[in-house]
TrEMBL record:
Lineage of source species: Bacteria, Bacillati, Bacillota, Clostridia, Peptostreptococcales
Domain Exonuclease VII large subunit C-terminal as annotated: residue spans: 124-320
Domain of life: Bacteria
NCBIfam families registered for this protein in UniProt: xseA (TIGR00237)
The protein, known as: Exodeoxyribonuclease 7 large subunit
Domain OB-fold nucleic acid binding: 6-101
Gene Ontology CC entries for this record: cytoplasm; exodeoxyribonuclease VII complex
GO biological process: DNA catabolic process
Keywords associated with the record: Cytoplasm, Exonuclease, Hydrolase, Nuclease
Localization per record: Cytoplasm
One Pfam short name: Exonuc_VII_L
GO molecular function, one term: nucleic acid binding
Organism encoding this protein: Emergencia timonensis
Assigned EC number: 3.1.11.6
CDD domains: ExoVII_LU_OBF
């Protein structure tokens, strides 16, 4: 008995029902290599998965594609999870993909390395671009969730270390699809409207790699790089490392550590100042004592030098006195000599100074006498 013919659509419907109700095909996991990859403007992704002998078409809907943290590429070894669907219009079947796992490494690790490589080539991690963190800030900005433990830890440490600094908290989403745009937008907003903020702390507390992923997004990295305000990245725990850490001006291992790095401890500063004061006092005292000893030594040397000069001058005066005394005319007169002077007061020392009839004064040891020259003789020869 001949079978009743059915339409093409009926056959495809039947095949679709059979495939749709098969438990294996409804939750299939397939491993292979991506080929003919196409990103549609709608956000959907079309590609094939192949092995050495076969090929299967694949469809990745927009809502699942947005959950990927990395770009798919031709030749990438992946494991797909999804279901097999029949496209009735052309009678083909494909895998309706819900999840893509990169073979040999975790998806987030692959995405992290790809983003790291891309931004590193653009120079976003260059040390030359990093700004110094102010040592004595007046105002600190904190970009994080206003309900998490991180903001409480940061505020606690900031206030306990420094009661002089002002703190402004800018609440943002720190996980989920909208978090990256929220964080990046807030960094831009603070830079535009809060020019008096000296340092920004950007981060969140610990969590899974997926929870922290917003701080690996390119939009956040570029906002951190463009920030005119120095940024301390504080994401997760000590072992967590994000793209934000690499771009930021300074990476803190935890939000608590970020608060410690952002402000100086006023109590430590006070103790340091007291130590410096004591050190300065000792130094000045020692300097004063040293200079006082130098002054005393200089004064003693000066007194000794002046005494030597005085003694030297006294000796010189004594020598002059003796010379004058030896040459005192009165002493000569006492030895039997006399001094003859003309009327003009000049001492007569030669016959040539005399003239007959000239009046002279003769000075003796006990008085003077006037004499008249009556005769002038020549030099006597014995």
């Amino acid at each position: 008995m001949a079978l009743k013919p059915i339409s093409v659509s009926q056959l495809n419907d039947y095949i679709g029902r059979v495939i749709g109700t098969d438990p294996l095909l409804g939750a299939v996991v397939v491993k292979g290599e991506i080929s003919n990859l196409k990103y549609h403007t709608s956000g959907h992704v079309y590609f094939s998965i192949i092995d050495a002998a076969s090929k299967i078409n694949c469809f990745l809907p927009r809502e699942y594609a947005m959950q990927l943290h990395y770009q798919l590429d031709d030749g990438m070894e992946v494991t797909l999870t999804g279901s097999v669907n029949v496209f009735k219009k052309n009678g083909t079947y494909s895998i309706y993909v819900k999840n893509v796992e990169v073979s040999g490494a975790g998806n987030l690790a692959i995405a992290f390395e790809k983003m790291k490589e891309k931004l590193d080539k653009e120079g976003l991690f260059d040390q030359a671009h990093k700004k110094p963190i102010p040592k004595f800030p007046d105002k600190i900005g904190v970009i994080t969730s206003n309900t998490g433990a991180a903001v409480r830890d940061i505020l606690k440490i900031l206030k306990s270390r420094n009661n002089l600094v002002d703190i402004v908290v800018f609440p943002v989403l720190v996980q989920g699809e909208a978090a990256a745009a929220d964080i990046a937008g807030m960094i831009d907003y603070v830079n535009e409207h809060f020019g008096d903020i000296d340092t920004l702390i950007v981060g969140r507390g610990g969590g899974s790699a997926d929870d922290l992923w917003a701080f690996n997004e390119e939009i956040v990295a570029r906002s951190i790089y463009a920030s005119q305000i120095p940024i301390i990245s504080a994401v997760g725990h000590e072992i967590d490392f994000t793209i934000s850490d690499l771009v930021a001006d300074l990476r803190a291992e935890t939000p608590t550590a970020a608060a410690q790095l952002a402000v100086p401890d006023t109590m430590q500063l006070k103790e340091r100042l007291l130590d410096l004061k004591e050190h300065l006092y000792v130094q000045l005292s020692n300097k004063l004592m040293y200079n006082r000893l130098r002054i005393d030594n200089l004064a003693a040397e000066m007194r000794s030098h002046l005494h030597s000069l005085i003694v030297q001058r006294q000796n010189e005066l004594e020598r002059y006195r003796l010379v004058l005394e030896e040459n005192n005319p009165k002493k000569i007169l006492e030895n039997g000599y006399s001094i003859i002077t003309a009327e003009n007061g000049h001492v007569v020392s030669s016959i040539g100074d005399l003239a007959c009839g000239q009046t002279l004064r003769v000075s003796l040891k006990d008085g003077d006498a006037k004499c008249l020259v009556t005769e002038i003789g020549s030099e006597r020869h014995e």
